[in-house]
Specification:
With 124 residues, the chain is mainly α. It is 79% helix and 0% strand. The protein has 5 helices and no strands. Bound molecules: protoporphyrin IX containing FE. Protoporphyrin IX containing FE binds next to helix 2, helix 3 and helix 5.
Length: 124
């Protein structure tokens, strides 16, 4: 019987890179969530209390932006390494398969818009 590792090429370098990129992409969401909620909380309390921003506040905004940008870059690398771009030539089929439609169109587009929106809000 063929070795399953060899068959799936699980030990190949590109596969290992994709795996670690996926771990990174998957974990970064929590960091983004924590810093985003923190940034929204800061802006709300400072706005309500009419208080000036401190260096710490701006640092929280900056960390939110940095993690979003790292997420964007890792997402783009994953998108290309997992060959999602080849789906653009067969859109009719892709739209009928929910998971393919999600990662090719919905996730990518919505997350891009979200990152642009976050950048617009917290870039100061
Ligand atoms: C704030 C922004 C984003 C968040 C929170 C996010 C979150 C996630 C999560 C939770 C997954 C599933 C990971 C897993 O399977 O364990 C994922 C997968 C993925 N994301 Fe994102 N993502 C973001 C932005 C992006 C962007 C901008 C792109 C592309 C340009 C992208 C491309 C991908 C790809 C290609 C996958 C892998 C799908 C697969 O398993 O085949 N992501 N993302």
């Amino acid at each position: 019987m063929a070795d399953p590792c060899e068959y799936l090429n699980l030990l190949s370098l590109p596969y290992q890179i994709i795996l670690y990129m996926e771990y990174l992409h998957s974990s970064l969401r929590y960091l983004i969530l924590v810093f985003l909620v923190g940034s929204i909380f800061i802006s709300f309390t400072k706005w309500r209390g009419n208080k000036p921003f401190t260096k710490g506040d701006k640092m929280t905004y900056l960390m939110t932006l940095i993690f979003c940008h790292v997420q964007l870059i890792v997402g783009l690398i994953l998108f290309i390494m997992k060959d999602y771009q080849k789906n653009f030539s067969q859109m009719g089929t892709i739209m009928k398969v929910p998971v393919l439609r999600f990662f090719t169109i919905e996730h990518t587009l919505m997350m891009l818009l979200a990152i642009i929106f976050i950048y617009w809000l917290f870039n100061c």
